[in-house]
Amino acid sequence: MCRIPVILLFIVMFMSCSRTPDYVISEDKMARLMADIYIGDAVVETEHRTFGNDSLRKVLQQSIYAKHGVTRELVDTSLYWYGHNIQAYMEMCDKTEEILQKRIEEAERAGGKSDGAPRHMSLDGDSVDIWSGIKMRRNTANIPSDFISFNVSSDKNWDRGDRYTLSVKGVNTHNLVTLNMAVDYNDGTTEYRWYNGPADGMNRLLLVLDSAKVASTVYGAIHYAASPKEISYLDSISLVRTRGRNDNVRAREGQNVVKNR
To answer: Burial code of 28-55, b = ≥16 C-beta within 10 A, e = fewer?
Structure first.
């Protein structure tokens, strides 16, 4: 009687173990879906006047689900499964990042704006994600640092009155997250703003630059300390720069100012 070679048996077993269950959206499809969701989140963030309430946000989300032929329940079930299958989750995130990067490059070619600027750092346009660090971090009690920091120096794409939105999404988190952002101006002053609240879900912090001053550096940090035995994630980390709007004065209310010299 013929026997299946041992090596072939291991390959078959590996393939069956790595395949997502029937009730879970496959990695490729999930990556395409998440890419559209991230783009949708960016639209909501930059066009907050149009998508200013939860009802309209849900309409946009449901249109994305309909495009991909999925339901909210199926997406929630799939995200829960990926949250408990870390390797598959990481592979799906990598595929999502590749899709988003490809779309950015295609948009730049279509718009004629490819000028050799570093990816995710200094790009032309009214709204762009300039975050260059990790997009997702796994939280445990023994990670080397509870902080994720960033520092962005001025370049030719900066403009007075620019807005910077720092975003991070907590998944399975138990504690509070703190977001800090600050800007140094050439006149020796610094403005800063911070947010502290439950990490679970999407968290955002807005910093609006003074249109009467020249900024030199924008910097800040995300802080989250996991509880003992906790395994959670900080996901969808971004730093979106947008051009100033007419309501900058109102948006700047609550920002703290200190003079360094």
So the answer is: ebbbbbbbbbbebbbebbbeeeebeeee
